[in-house]
Design a protein that fits this description.
It is built from 9 helices and 10 strands. About 40% of the residues are buried. A 6-stranded parallel beta sheet has the order 7-6-5-9-8-10, with helices on both faces. The protein has 2 domains: about 70 residues, 60s Ribosomal Protein L30, Chain: A, CATH 3.30.1330; about 160 residues, Alpha/beta knot (3-Layer(aba) Sandwich). It is about 35% helix and about 20% strand. It is α/β, with parallel strands linked by helices. The protein is elongated, with a radius of gyration of 19 Å.
Length: about 250
Amino acid sequence: MSEGQVIYGKHPVLEALNEELPIEKILVLQGTHGELEKTLRETCKDRSIPMQQVPKEVLYKLCKGNNHQGVAAIISPVEYQDLKGLLPFILAQDHHPLFLVLDRITDVRNLGAIARSAELLGVDALIVSSKHRARIDEEAIKTSAGALLKLSVCRENSLVTTIDVLKSAGIRIAAADAKAAAPIRAIDFSQPIALILGSEDEGVHPSLLDKCDDRFQIPQSGTIDSFNVSVAAGIILYEIYNQRHPL
């Protein structure tokens, strides 16, 4: 797995946070307590940055044996956007917005492939959770053919809260759900939409499904359980594009 740029040591990591560099994750030595741990935890929570306690062997390998002082930061190759700050600009555009919300998509290549389709087919913002997701690294960017560097990517602490924010802005919420009765072509995607895609194993979390205005499935004639999530994303986004750009 390719790594992003790594910053290590107490002062360099705190400086990176103060400068609001795009940080993918903070790693802290297991058992760390005190003022540093408290400061890191509070800052990470405010900025939706994942923070993880790890064994010393992990930090030693990540920092290539250098003195890490028990803390390291992995710098993201993309600069995450704040959804609440971005939302007014998207809503002011002269087309109905399209948001893509990824729930527990953990495979880097799936993430990259989804982002590639999203950029090609008119997604205004890609929204991911700060936890339980694939990391955006060099492999993800390569798989996306650079789309992750062009898309607005928002990282949020709670997707449930995010959906509430979108709904309050007049965005209709739709989710791909293999158990849904409605086929994809029964859904009107011509209006402002936030599309939720879930993990291949578990689908969209029930707490998110409960907030949906529409649930739909992709009809199939085969016997395999489901499409790969990146393939499903391409099919759904193409259907949305076709509805919005009729021949």
